[in-house]
Write a structure and sequence with these properties.
Layout: H1 10-21, H2 29-49, H3 53-65, E1 71-72, E2 79-80, H4 82-93, H5 109-123, H6 129-150, H7 153-156, H8 179-195, H9 212-217, H10 253-265, E3 273-280, H11 282-288, H12 297-302, H13 304-314, H14 330-336, E4 339-343, H15 345-348, E5 358-364, E6 369-374, H16 387-398, H17 404-415, H18 424-428
Parallel strand pairs: 3-4
Antiparallel strand pairs: 1-2, 3-5, 5-6
């Protein structure tokens, strides 16, 4: 066993100092505006997720476990204990592959940050809107840096990076939806315990035995701890978080955009199609490139060939394309067999920042080949969505749960959070009476 040097915690200490000393006035205006849009997007995803089967099962199960009712389950009229609400709300945010992603950090940031924070603001502390935004930025900054430190090693070793779970859950298990909720629940426990003086690992990133970096990379060198603190407080990772405009895993989006671009240049029918070849990173091949099998909705939304087939047949890959029966659709399944995902070592060599890069070849029966390369999709940090687009997505996702007036009030509360004297005004609007 390697000697444990508890005093060597320069990285852990610097991150802790950043979180504890961050104030609203130290956050650039563009970051404050961006975090509000990211919050609104996550809340829309969660409210849509409230009525999904796996979220209902989890909510009902938690409700039967204890009688504490203090904290709201978003998009419902129900309350649970704070830890259970954080678990359920985080599951709802991640419930239908609609939520944000930090691509370099390989992390769904809102799903692990906001449920714990909103539980605190609703039930454990009085926070102004500015204090709430400051806490949100702290979370949105730390999580991606941990992911960047680990690079692709974390997910490559089979961990659902950023969350509490294993990547085998992507093959048909409902539990994949719950991983982010478990992380947020743990974050809430951590905050409440820390307030009471409970301590954790003071050198969690530096410890040679049992430390985060060494354990989750299964190595002593396949990580870069400098990424934890590089530009901390000066370069904000919040600005690098992407939004999704397809209801599927983020690894699929560049391919879907590339095919849309090809089809815009050269419209083709399904009868004309010979096959589609997607050249991508090893992570893309492992994560989403396997042959589709109709196990579950989770499998359908994670599988790249099936999502390509959905786009070609339906014209989009959003919530309306994943209704009951979609996963067993014989036409989609047959078309998915014409999609091949192959490893391109040159893309893998570019590193985690380019793990979603693809070169797509659409091969037609007339012998023509139409190619498109995409490094990042719509809504990415390179091409972030407008406020109007994000509000439109929010309204679309919440139209069955909230009245137009309720939608407008919640949008106003989030986009003007810095003006609220009490963040509970926003949390109250997450309930449906």
């Amino acid at each position: 066993m390697a000697e444990h040097a508890g005093a060597d915690n320069a990285y852990t200490r610097k991150m802790a100092e950043f979180v504890s000393s961050l104030t609203y006035d130290r956050i650039p205006a563009e970051v404050c505006e961006r975090i509000k849009l990211l919050i609104l997007d996550s809340l829309g995803c969660a409210i849509y997720g409230a009525d999904l089967e796996w979220c209902r099962i989890l909510r009902d199960t938690c409700a039967a476990l204890d009688v504490t009712r203090t904290t709201s389950v978003w998009g419902t009229g129900q309350q649970l204990s704070s830890p259970h609400a954080a678990l359920v709300n985080g599951t709802q945010v991640q419930g239908f592959e609609l939520d944000d992603v930090h691509r370099q950090g390989v992390l769904h940031v809102g799903a692990v940050t906001l449920p714990a924070l909103i539980a605190v603001a609703e039930s454990h502390a009085s926070l102004s809107g500015r204090e709430f935004l400051t806490a949100a930025v702290a979370g949105y900054e730390i999580g991606p840096r941990v992911g960047k430190c680990m690079g692709q090693e974390h997910i490559g070793q089979g961990w659902h990076s950023g969350s509490a779970g294993l990547m085998a859950a992507q093959y048909g298990a409902m539990v994949k939806r719950m991983h982010a909720g478990r992380s947020s629940q743990s974050g809430l426990y951590g905050a409440l315990l820390a307030r009471a003086g409970f301590t954790g690992i003071v050198d969690v990133f530096e410890a040679p035995y049992g430390g985060f970096c060494t354990t989750f990379s299964r190595s002593t060198d396949r990580f870069d701890r400098d990424e934890l603190v590089a530009g901390l407080g000066e370069r904000f990772e919040t600005m690098r978080i992407s939004l999704k405009f397809y209801s599927c895993v983020g690894s699929n989006h560049t391919t879907l955009d590339a095919i849309r671009d090809i089809r815009a240049r050269r419209p083709f029918t399904l009868d004309e199609l010979d096959r589609i070849v997607v050249h991508g990173s090893q992570v893309t091949v492992d994560h989403v490139g396997w042959p589709y099998r109709p196990d579950s909705m989770t499998t359908a939304q994670l599988n790249l060939p099936f999502c390509v087939a959905t786009l070609l047949i339906e014209g989009d890959v959003s919530v309306d394309q994943f209704k009951p029966g979609a996963i067993d659709d014989p036409e989609r399944i047959a078309l998915s067999r014409k999609v091949e995902v192959v490893h391109d070592p040159a893309i893998t060599a570019l590193g985690s920042a380019y793990r979603h890069k693809v070169r797509v070849e659409v091969r037609l029966r007339d012998g023509s080949v139409h190619t498109e390369t995409r490094e990042a999709p719509r809504g990415s940090e390179q091409s972030f969505a407008s406020e109007a687009d994000i509000v439109a997505k929010f309204r679309s996702l919440t139209r069955n749960a909230l009245s137009p007036a309720h939608q407008a009030a919640l949008i106003e509360a989030v986009l003007r959070l810095d003006k609220l004297t009490d963040a509970r005004r926003m949390t109250e609007l997450l309930r449906v009476r």
